[in-house]
Amino acid sequence: MNKLCSIRFLLLLASFSGLLNLIYLMVFADLKGNLELYTLSSSSVLRRQIASIQVDSEARVSAGPSLSYLELLNLDLKDVVQRYVSSSETVAKHYEAASLQEDNLSEQHKLAHTSVPSCPSSLFLLIMVHSSPANLMDRESIRLSWGREDNPINQGSWTNSDRSWKTVFLVGRSNSSRLNNLVNQEARVYKDIVIGDFHDTFRNLSLKTLLGLQWSLGHCQAKYIFKTDEDCFVNVLSLLEWLQDYHMTNGSTPLYAGNVQREMEVVRVETHRYYVSPQDFNPYFFPPYASGGGYVFSGSLLPKLAKASKRVPIIPVEDACLGLYMQDIGVNPVHNRRILPYIFCDDTRTSLSERPICHFREPLVVHGINDLLHIQTHYNVLLMSFMPTICSNVP
Which Enzyme Commission number(s) are on file for it (predicted)? Predict the structure, then answer.
């Protein structure tokens, strides 16, 4: 992405206090000097931040164990990028090669729950990410940024949250036994992948959703469950804050929230990827449902949803399929404007790449984020959250 937000633009628009904070940011992130575009797609910001880490490391020795949040952010960033580069230059190449290989799968190659992730007994939020077998680097980027609670940068008193959370990836099986074996090894190493015994295709995404419902019911019953895709960035700390507020005031009311789609017409063209036969669903329009890029629902609904999945025919439109389950159990979706706000744009700035970086601070979920962009977006949002006046005058 290009031209999301330039430091020069922020300097012109920032208030006096925002300007002071921006200067503070430039010192710690080593952004002083060449004020080139501050974008999500370019790794220049990461490189400039990494360049200043040696100074921070030396300062840590002389100053003792106490470090500012920005220093910790900078130190953590170096380790994250090194791990990302290492994976992309080694393991990812094996996944890429294996994804091009197809063979006839025998029974011994079929993978179903081969490695079940562990789950805390009193989990507040479970995040389930739909992922494709070959997309290792998307999973790795999520693990290195917003996807893991044990990342140092996602911890600390500044988050003001005592709610636990965990991310798992839902993956089907490939036509390549070599790729299946790689995913199986990855699942054993990271213990965060749930593997289903079905082909990982677009038309089988509803099976992946059903896999998540069944697995979470049997192995990880959290207070709330959030479903998203591997090409979506989740502002998990803000999501936790929003859910915590909801839980304090409306915790007894079942929740099903997201970017609600209404009066969505059922596709009857058989060659279309969203085709649904009249035998599976006869009406011309789907009932309201939350868009599949990101929605959240109460974990207490899992038993009812599992029963609904046995009554309601499964259709190959995964978010609408869950909407049918919710309708069956009498739960209506609630629209949240912070979830996927840039999927349907009403203004002229329809491209994600044309939005200022400051527009990524408030959304809980943003679609269209892949690979390294997960890491960059996560760190940029953390910086903006730490110094909110930077964006105070950005429209």
Answer: 2.4.1.-
pLDDT of residue 344: 55
62-76, 256-270, 280-294, 368-382: least confident range: 62-76
Residue 283 structure tokens: 């009406």
Tokens of 224: 């709330």
Band of the pLDDT at 90, cuts 50, 70, 90? confident
> What's the confidence (pLDDT) of residue 108?
41
Question: 165 and 124 in contact (C-beta within 8 Å)?
Answer: yes
What pLDDT score does 353 carry?
Answer: 72
Q: What is the rounded CA–CA span in Å between residue 385 and residue 367? A: 20
What are the pLDDT digits (tens) for 144-168? 999 998 887 777 555 555 688 999 9
pTM comes to: 0.80
Question: What's the pLDDT score for residue 365?
Answer: 96
The candidate with the shortest Cα–Cα distance to 205, out of 39, 119, 320, is 320
- Helix (H), strand (E), coil (C) string for the chain: CCCCEEHHHHHHHCCHHHHHHHHHHHHHHCCCCCCCEECCCCCHHHHHHHHCHHHHHHHHHHHCCCCCHHHHHHHHHHHHHHHHHHHHHCHHHHHHHHHCCCCCCCHHHCCCCCCCCCCCCCCCEEEEEECCCCCHHHHHHHHHCCCCCCCHHHCCHHHCCCCCEEEEEEEEECCCHHHHHHHHHHHHHHCCEEEEEEECCHHHHHHHHHHHHHHHHHHCCCCEEEEEECCEEECHHHHHHHHHHHHHHHCCCCCEEEEEECCCECECCCCCCCECCCCCCCCCECCCEEEEEEEEEEHHHHHHHHHHHHHCCCCCCHHHHHHHHHHHCCCCCEECCCECCCCCCCCCCCCHHHCCHHHHCCCCEEECCCCHHHHHHHHHHHHHHHCHHHHCCCC
Tokens of 321: 């399929």
The CB density around residue 327, as the number of other CB atoms within 10 Å, is: 17
- 263: phi then psi, degrees, rounded to nearest 5: 55, 45
pLDDT at 3: 36
